[in-house]
Please model this.
Amino acid sequence: MEHHLGGLIAHYGYAGILIALSLGIVGLPIPDETLLTYAGFAAYQGTLSLPLVILFSFCGSASGITVSYAIGYKLGLPFLKKFGPKIHITEEKITGTHRMFERYGNILLIIGYYIPGVRHLTAYVAAISQMDFRKFMVFAYTGAFIWTLTFVLLGYFLGERWVLVHQGIKRYGVYVLIALLLIAAGVWLYRQRKKAV
Model:
């Protein structure tokens, strides 16, 4: 894994990060968190500039989710159901994400980045649900910034131990998902109580 990521960054630099993240968010099987963490590690080594890694990572994520929204808006659910399985987007994932979006909507656009499978679908579902694009941008781009910053800084501050993030995601991914869903549920309950007052 390290060899491939090192090659990508050595050959294409910041543009490689941007393009890989764009394609990963659209749905291609690219290990997004691992790429972000490795890019942070490259900044730690001095190979790349930390501010530029953060900037290009954000731009890649934001452009990927924007393309996903555009595809969802123009081509809709039938397209996603027909071609989604070719990039590991199954009908079950689509249905599950749609249900989550109906409940948590805006919050899901922010925390969905942390949930593999969900981050690839939130923009499609937002577009299919006819969410206003300006509103979509506020939440989706906020999520993109927080998500990319999290993993780039993890790689930067962990340094040589950046691999621990990749191993942790593989080992504890389900627990991370559950924790995020609990946080989302807590935020939703808090808002409901605030509305009732």
